């Protein structure tokens, strides 16, 4: 009988072992090349650099200046209209006869503040007071607009806080330009105000202890809420940075660990 040659026997690198056919060896293994090291795991970014990377993702949108202008305009309009109402309605009343909303706590009483918060520079000369507040207001507005243009998509608190501050600043600035003083009409009293003033009086000699909060307006409310949101953004952004640090460290360690 003649010997029959199977086609598989003619393929180089194929040999029989225990009746099973072995696959051809890979060129790298045949040449004795070392095994390629696994690709390191991608490092995660932390802190502001990660936020910047998130802003470059497809679909990520920065806060809109249309939204910024709309919120600021709403605050400005609410402030202007409320002050116009106060000047018309409250001038009909005697200073000793305020419009009572909550007995002993909340009234509407017309007042004019020639200075800043808590009467700052109220007794200063007009040549000093008006230029000072105009320069401070314009600088604050320029800073707010510039900062808003640098916001990242995740900064939601600042997205609301900055236009609120801008609307309030514009409202009080309009008063200083047109009247030379700011219209205030919201009058509040509270026991916690008296307690706070007593604590300050223990540190500051001559501090006047009263339960009366300085009279304010809608613009002041807008500014305070906006500043509060700015503080929230500062606290949450610092917390996010602390939370991302361990994650970044663990991934660095994972990338540097040799493959088993």
Describe the model.
This protein is of the alpha+beta class and 260 residues long. It has a domain at 62-188 and 215-247. Helices cover 52% and strands 11% of the residues. It is built from seven helices and six strands. It has helices at 27-30, 48-55, 65-90, 126-148, 156-178, 191-201, 218-256, and strands spanning 16-17, 20-21, 99-102, 106-113, 182-189, 212-216. The strands form two sheets. Strands 3-4-5-6 form a four-stranded antiparallel sheet. Strand 3 and strand 4 (106-113) form a beta hairpin. Helix 3 crosses helix 5 (156-178) and helix 5 (156-178) packs antiparallel against helix 7 (218-256). The protein starts with 15 loop residues before the first strand and ends with a helix. The relative contact order is 0.14. Residues 13-18, 40-50 and 248-255 have low confidence and may be disordered.
């Amino acid at each position: 009988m003649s010997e029959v040659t199977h086609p598989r026997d003619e393929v180089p690198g194929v040999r029989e072992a225990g009746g099973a056919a072995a696959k051809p060896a890979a060129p790298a293994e045949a040449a004795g090349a070392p095994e390629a090291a696994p690709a390191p795991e991608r490092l995660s970014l932390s802190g502001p650099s990660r936020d910047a990377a998130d802003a470059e993702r497809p679909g990520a949108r920065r806060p809109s200046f249309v939204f910024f202008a709309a919120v600021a305009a709403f605050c400005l309009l609410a402030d202007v209209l409320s002050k116009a109402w106060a000047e018309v309605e409250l001038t009909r009343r005697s200073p000793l006869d305020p419009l009572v909303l909550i007995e002993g706590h909340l009234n509407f009483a017309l007042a004019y503040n020639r200075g800043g918060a808590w009467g700052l520079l109220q007794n200063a000369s007009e040549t000093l007071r008006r230029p000072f507040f105009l320069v401070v207001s314009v600088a604050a507005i320029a800073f707010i607009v510039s900062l808003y243009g640098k916001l990242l998509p995740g900064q939601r608190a600042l997205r609301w806080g900055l236009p609120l501050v801008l609307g309030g600043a514009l409202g009080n600035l309009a008063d200083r330009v047109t009247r030379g003083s700011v219209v205030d009409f919201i009058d509040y009293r509270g026991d916690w105000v008296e307690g706070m003033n007593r604590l300050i009086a223990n540190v500051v000699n001559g501090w006047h202890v009263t339960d009366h909060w300085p009279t304010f307006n809608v613009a002041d409310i807008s500014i305070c809420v906006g500043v509060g949101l700015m503080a929230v953004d500062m606290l949450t952004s610092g917390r996010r940075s602390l939370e991302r640090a361990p994650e970044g460290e663990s991934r660095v360690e994972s990338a540097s660990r040799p493959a088993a």
